[in-house]
From TrEMBL:
Low complexity bias (residue ranges): 521-538
InterPro entries, per the entry: Beta-lactam/transpept (IPR050515), Beta-lactam/transpept-like (IPR012338), Beta-lactam_class-D_AS (IPR002137), PBP_dimer (IPR005311), PBP_dimer_sf (IPR036138), PCN-bd_Tpept (IPR001460)
Subcellular location: Membrane
Gene source species: Microbacterium faecale
Major localization class: membrane
Recorded catalytic activity of this chain's protein: a beta-lactam + H2O = a substituted beta-amino acid
The protein's name in its UniProt record: Beta-lactamase
């Protein structure tokens, strides 16, 4: 069970403090009063005052400091005022504690009263400490629309109070089989609980329950269904790697929290829920009470209490409808797949989806893959900066050998687009050899600079783990040539390639963001305007900023991919779409010497930039293209 807040009470067995004497041995050189006081302070700070374990175990994990004032002596008696301060879940409990000491047979001693354990504690009482968290805060999306919020669920399981003990195992196994969970595991847990326990088998959303729970479920003896709520996104798939999950704190988390977490506390376990857990969780109300008696009949007095601090909602840039469309178009894609959508004008990530068969956690934002021919947009920018124009001629040969390694075009490359063609046609039809032929005149530094101008390799804090690409230095001509077509050592993520498309659309280097500015309550802040009114251009490194003219040329090249080239499936879409396909080889050759391929497509449509990635597909146009067309067609 994952409650929305937790309430836990620490309770100790009642004991009788008989006020024994705490021996404080005198030291040589004087009569030992100062040393006796030091020992008293240490015993308080170390939780070693006699009777502490019985009366105040609830405070055992909390630090306490004691400071002694100058003692006042009167013959064989002395008094000292102690300033005691407890740190309880970040709350300060301070009080003054007067202590009387007596000297007898050269040894100072102090009466151990309950007040030495905690201010206000009386003989026969024990300390209870209650922590109650406020309701966990929502995670909101664009426009402040709630994404993760309390939603109805149904808890299915075995209610042992409804059956005879002898029926437990049989009913547990029947319930498990009906719900599609492990019968052995449920039967084992059921056997270890009391006769009145509810043994939970599974928690389902109402819509999922309609499909998963058989109509005759309630006919099973002891089968129960309990209505409840949980903090959930709109669907099980909705940006799950970004949003993360919530559950009870693990033993490891409790140990690493240095006392901030306790068993039973509900915390974020991954994603944004974990990264922003303290704000989303809030600060619990804490009450320290003195109790006498047992159970419901116990009498309790409040010694000190602190109010809860309400949890703070987290605003993200995710757009609910866009994310749901992304999830829908990937729902039936076999193998790994991802889609990222960005609003170029602001850099807001509107959707980051992974298909249901994706095995890499958060592949859309942290996956590292060769981008293949989508990277030719980077190479094209580097060539433009060297003076080449879209209408200039480049050579597209069937194969090209660099330093002994033979490069080739993809198998279905149109034969009538080989030979001397324009740079525009080379991009439109995705000629590998035309790009590779530039390797001697286009150094890796220029490629790296162009990549950075389009947002690749940025070290941006998105509030989530993110990989924005790596275009490393290359060792040798072959590796450099391979990088010009997005192979070799070049690595990107779907998020990184969506950023490239967004930069082209925006006419400036875009840095993506997932967290909205607090004052915007759900929408990301736009880049600061310049005196001209245009957003200020930013760059992830010392690279030259992308200019509006460069971006306009790149958009025209990408439009030619749709109108004349490999992304013709997007041609009929309105508003007009500009795109680039990509197919990237990876892994080890099979028995026939063939390599597996990633399928890519990036596209821009108005104020929208999208990257589609399929982990194992024959080509960008045939595999990623239909997904892109479906996604943009739903907008």
């Amino acid at each position: 069970m994952t409650p929305t807040s937790s309430r836990r009470t620490s309770r100790l067995v009642a004991c009788s403090l008989l006020v024994p004497l705490l021996g404080l041995t005198a030291c040589t050189g004087d009569d030992g009063l100062d040393q006796a006081i030091e020992n008293l302070v240490a015993s308080i700070e170390d939780h070693e005052v006699r009777g502490f374990d019985e009366a105040a175990e609830a405070l055992a994990e909390y630090p306490v400091e004691a400071m002694a004032e100058e003692p006042v002596r009167d013959g064989d008696a002395a008094t000292v005022d102690l300033a005691v301060t407890w740190d309880i879940d970040g709350n300060e409990w301070s009080y003054e504690l007067p202590v009387t000491l007596g000297l007898s047979e050269e040894e100072w001693s102090v009466d151990v009263t309950p007040q030495l354990i905690a201010d206000g504690l009386e003989e026969g009482e024990v300390i209870e400490l209650t922590r109650e968290y406020p309701a966990r805060a929502d995670i909101a999306g664009a426009g402040g629309e709630a994404i993760v919020t309390e939603r109805p669920v149904i808890r299915y399981g075995l209610d042992k109070s409804w059956i005879d003990p002898g029926q437990t195992e049989r009913s547990a196994r029947r319930i498990a089989r009906a719900l599609g969970v492990d019968p052995d595991e449920l039967a084992s847990r059921a056997a270890q609980t009391g006769d009145q326990a509810f043994v939970e088998a599974i928690v389902l959303r109402p819509d999922d329950a309609k499909e998963r729970v058989p109509a005759d479920y309630s006919d099973i003896p002891g089968a129960n269904a309990v209505d409840d709520t949980m903090f959930l996104a709109p669907t099980r798939e909705f940006a799950r790697d970004i949003l993360g999950t919530v559950g009870e704190a693990t033993a490891e988390m409790i140990e690493e929290s240095e006392g901030a977490l306790r068993a039973g506390d509900v915390v974020g376990l991954s994603g944004l829920q974990a990264a922003h857990d303290e704000a989303l969780r809030g600060i619990p109300a804490v009450t320290v009470s003195a109790a006498s008696g047992e159970g419901d009949d116990a009498e309790r007095r409040t010694l000190v209490e602190w109010d809860a601090v309400e949890a703070e909602p987290l605003a993200t840039t995710l757009d609910v409808k866009t994310q749901q469309r992304a999830d829908a178009v990937l729902a039936d894609v076999p193998g790994g797949s991802s889609l990222v959508a960005i609003r170029p004008s602001t850099g807001e990530v509107l959707a980051a989806a992974n298909g249901p068969e994706t095995e890499v956690h958060a592949a859309a934002t942290v996956g590292q893959y060769a981008p293949g021919s989508t990277f030719k947009i980077v190479t094209a920018l580097a060539l433009l900066r060297q003076g080449l124009t879209p209408d200039d001629t480049v050579s597209c040969s069937e194969t090209l050998t660099v330093d002994g390694f033979e490069f080739h075009n993809f198998p279905d490359y149109p034969a009538d687009k080989t030979g001397d063609i324009t740079l525009r046609d080379a991009i439109a039809h995705s000629c590998n050899t035309a790009m590779i032929a530039q390797y001697a005149d286009l150094d890796q530094a220029a490629v790296r600079d162009a990549a950075a101008s389009l947002g690749l390799g940025a070290e941006a804090d998105l509030g989530i783990p993110a990989f924005l690409g790596d275009v490393p230095e290359t060792d040798g001509a072959t590796a450099h040539a391979a990088s010009l077509i997005g192979q070799g050592t070049v690595l990107t993520s779907p998020l990184a390639m969506a950023t490239v498309a967004a930069s082209v659309a925006a006419g400036q280097t875009v840095t993506p963001t997932v967290l909205a500015e607090p004052e915007e309550a759900g929408s990301a802040a736009s880049p600061a305007p310049t005196e001209s009114g245009a957003p200020e251009e930013t760059s992830p490194s010392s690279a030259d900023p992308l200019t509006h003219d460069e971006a306009a040329t790149l958009r025209a090249l990408m439009r030619s991919v749709v109108v004349d080239g490999s992304a013709s499936e997007l041609k009929a879409l309105e508003p007009a779409v500009a795109a680039k396909t990509g197919t990237a080889e990876f892994g080890e050759p099979d028995a026939d010497g063939d390599l597996s391929t990633h399928a890519w497509m990036i596209a821009v449509q108005g104020d929208l930039a999208v990257a589609v990635f399929v982990a194992d597909g024959p080509s960008g146009s045939d595999t990623a293209g239909p997904i892109m067309a479906d996604f943009l067609g739903r907008m």
